[in-house]
Structures are given as structure tokens and as C-alpha cells.
């Protein structure tokens, strides 16, 4: 409808006539910051999202509270009334073997923040938190938690499984029931239900990781390359993933990671705008290589390719960091690690033995 272009204060910022283009750039480094997604709550039909009015996600709820949102910040039910009883379902899909078996980290803090915002706007409302597990790192989260515990109109229910929930229409309200940790069935009627969905990888994160020769994590996120667990986060030099594309995290952590990545890249590029190739890297002895591909399979950085004829392998120097995995894995001893050759190691041993050490 072009309404967005009409109200946009920046001339030319929105172009409806633009088309898909393939851009090629020569760069010294790449920072991946494609973000993450939220679990589609329609995969949990028992919660009524997408079919029942009054069931919204955390992202939609924040938009409803925004001053420039569809309600102008004045929260109302579909009937136009201020909600008097509100449910917050935390861990919606998180810590669940069928959806996201990990903790999404930000859900608990977000839910406690929503309670504080609701209490400010609707001081007489009743708020019920349905909690599977608490995850509240940091001082600010503890302040939110203590404030919620002191709220006489806030209640907390520990539930056993997201699959035990049932949300049904009940006249102008929503009837919610679930099974608590004791196995008992509990429930009540609510005017609004807010879901806190699991943080999940962006749809093409795994494809992007493969394209950049980065291995996706167990849950489909992209390894950051900033972690201290280098054996677990091997990534090609000059390519870093930051923010929520490497796993669930809050805005502050994502911003800190972005700054750290920028500093690290700038330090490595220095004045030349290029990464210095590490001389401690592997190279192939072509006469011995049969092109079996074992080295390419074990290389954690994807720095080895086998030619189309399958006759020999080749090391991409810019990607290799000389870890030596391929040297140990080659059945034909056709790969040599620079500065760590057999001859050099034997000479070191001979030197040590000659000195009597």
C-alpha cells in the first residue's frame, strides 16, 4: 500500500521497485550477525495460538504495550476491556525434547519484566506465571524476581510439561488448565495469555554456517568463535558469529559480543586490511596422496578440499590453522604439518637426549 514509504522521514529508504541482486565483495573478514527466531507457537496447538483471540506471544505483547503500537499502549482485550487476569506461560517450547531441549535464557527475565510493566499499567490485575524452570542470572534479574515475590497479586505455578496445557474458549474468557509438578490438574480463566516462546536458530542458519565453512552447533546455532572452548568452537580465521545467531542471549550480551568481534577483527587486519596467514599449517605431499578424503572429513575448519577427479587433496592456506588433526588422520602420511614435521620432532628429541635431560 506504500503507506510506510509515505510516512518514512528518510528519502529513498524504502524502495518497492528494488529486486534481488547478487553482490560480490572482496573483504578481509566476515562478522555473522543474522540473529535468531522465535518458535512458531502454532506447533503447540494445545495453547490456542493463532486460533483463539487473547493468546499472544511475548513479541506481540510488547508491540501491544508500545505507545506507537496498534492499541497506543492502552492494553485491552478483544472485547475492549482492560484485562483483569493475565497468564504468562514461560518456557514455551524450551526445555522440551520435542521442540527446543535447551534453555532460551531470556524468557524468565522477559516474563518478570512484563509483570512489572503490567503492574504499572493495570495495578489491580491478577498475574499468574506458569514456570517450568527458573533461569535468572545477574543482579538485575534478581531484583525483578524479588519484586515479583513481593507482589501479592502475582502467583506462580510450576508445571511439569508444556504438553499438559489446554486452552479453551469460555464465553468472553480463556479457560487454561495444566498439570503441575505434583501431577495435579490445575487451571483458571484468563482474559489474556502471553506465551514466552523458545529462541530458535534463524531458518537458514545451518545453510549459512555451511557456506562459510563453520560447523553449526548441536542445536542448529552458529558457533561464535569468541568462546574460550576452542576445541568446541573451531571456525575459520576472520569469520566470527555474534549475537543470538550463536545462541539465545539478551541485547546487552549481543552488543558486547559485537564490540568484541569488531575489536578482534580490526586487531587482526591491522593496517593492511588482510589477515596474516599462519605459517604453522599443513601441506599435502602430492606423490603420496590418493584422494581418499579422510583429511577433508576430519578437518574442523573445512580447510581441505579434494579435487573433482578424487586424485588428491589440497589445503586452503587461508583457512588452515595448523591444528594437526589431518596429519594424524592421513593413512598414507601424505600430510605434513609445517614446523612440526617428523624430522623436526626427532631432532628435538635427539637434542634433549644429548644434553642428558
Describe, in plain words, how this protein is organized in 3D.
By secondary structure, the chain is of the alpha/beta class. It contains 9 helices and 16 strands. The strands form 6 sheets. The protein has a 5-stranded parallel β-sheet. A hairpin with a 2-residue loop joins strand 7 and strand 8. Helix 3 packs across helix 4 (139-149). The longest helix has 19 residues, at 251-269. The model is unreliable at 228-233 (pLDDT under 50).
Task: Please count the helical segments.
Answer: 9
Number of strands: 16
Strand order within the widest beta sheet: 3-10-4-5-6
Give the termini distance in whole angstroms: 82 Å
Mean pLDDT: 87
* Percent strand: 15-25%
Residue share in helix: 10-25%
Oligomer: single chain
How would you characterize the largest beta sheet? Answer: 5 strands, parallel
Q: Low-confidence stretches at least 5 residues in length (pLDDT < 50)?
A: 228-233
Shape: elongated
Output the radius of gyration: 27 Å
Q: What letter string, H or E per element, gives the SSE order?
A: HEEEHEHEHEEEEEEHEHEHEEHEH
> What structural class do you assign from the helix and strand content?
alpha/beta
Amino acid at each position: 500500500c506504500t503507506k510506510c514509504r509515505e510516512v518514512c522521514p528518510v528519502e529513498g529508504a524504502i524502495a518497492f521497485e528494488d529486486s534481488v541482486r547478487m553482490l560480490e565483495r572482496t573483504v578481509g573478514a566476515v562478522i555473522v550477525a543474522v540473529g535468531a527466531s522465535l518458535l512458531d507457537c502454532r506447533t503447540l496447538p494445545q495453547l490456542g495460538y493463532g486460533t483463539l483471540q487473547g493468546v499472544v506471544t511475548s513479541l506481540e505483547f510488547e508491540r501491544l504495550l508500545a505507545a506507537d503500537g496498534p492499541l497506543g499502549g492502552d492494553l485491552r482485550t478483544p472485547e475492549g476491556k482492560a484485562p483483569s487476569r493475565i497468564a504468562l506461560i514461560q518456557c514455551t517450547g524450551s526445555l522440551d525434547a520435542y521442540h527446543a531441549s535447551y534453555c532460551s535464557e531470556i524468557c524468565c527475565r522477559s516474563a518478570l519484566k512484563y509483570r512489572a510493566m503490567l503492574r504499572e499499567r493495570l495495578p489491580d490485575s491478577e498475574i499468574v506465571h506458569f514456570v517450568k524452570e527458573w533461569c535468572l542470572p545477574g543482579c538485575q534479574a534478581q531484583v525483578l524476581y524479588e519484586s515479583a515475590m513481593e507482589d501479592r497479586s502475582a502467583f506462580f505455578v510450576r508445571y511439569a510439561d508444556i504438553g499438559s496445557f489446554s486452552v479453551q474458549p469460555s464465553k468472553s474468557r480463556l479457560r487454561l488448565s495444566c498439570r503441575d509438578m505434583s501431577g495435579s490438574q490445575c487451571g483458571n480463566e484468563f482474559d489474556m495469555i502471553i506465551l514466552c516462546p523458545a529462541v530458535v536458530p534463524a531458518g537458514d542458519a545451518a545453510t549459512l554456517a555451511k557456506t562459510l565453512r563453520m560447523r553449526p552447533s548441536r542445536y542448529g546455532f552458529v558457533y561464535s568463535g569468541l568462546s574460550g572452548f576452542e576445541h568446541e568452537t573451531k571456525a575459520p580465521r576472520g569469520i566470527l558469529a555474534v549475537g543470538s545467531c550463536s545462541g539465545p542471549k539478551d541485547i546487552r550480551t549481543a552488543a558486547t559480543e559485537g564490540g568484541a568481534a569488531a575489536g578482534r577483527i580490526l586487531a587482526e587486519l591491522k593496517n593492511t586490511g588482510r589477515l596474516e596467514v599462519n605459517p604453522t599449517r599443513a601441506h599435502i605431499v602430492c606423490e603420496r596422496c590418493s584422494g581418499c578424503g579422510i583429511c577433508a572429513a576430519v578437518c574442523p575448519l573445512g580447510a581441505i578440499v579434494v579435487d573433482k577427479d578424487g586424485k588428491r587433496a589440497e589445503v586452503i592456506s587461508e583457512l588452515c590453522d595448523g591444528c594437526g588433526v589431518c596429519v594424524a588422520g592421513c593413512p598414507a602420511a601424505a600430510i605434513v604439518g609445517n614446523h612440526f614435521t617428523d624430522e623436526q620432532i626427532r631432532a628435538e628429541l635427539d637434542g634433549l637426549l644429548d644434553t642428558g635431560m
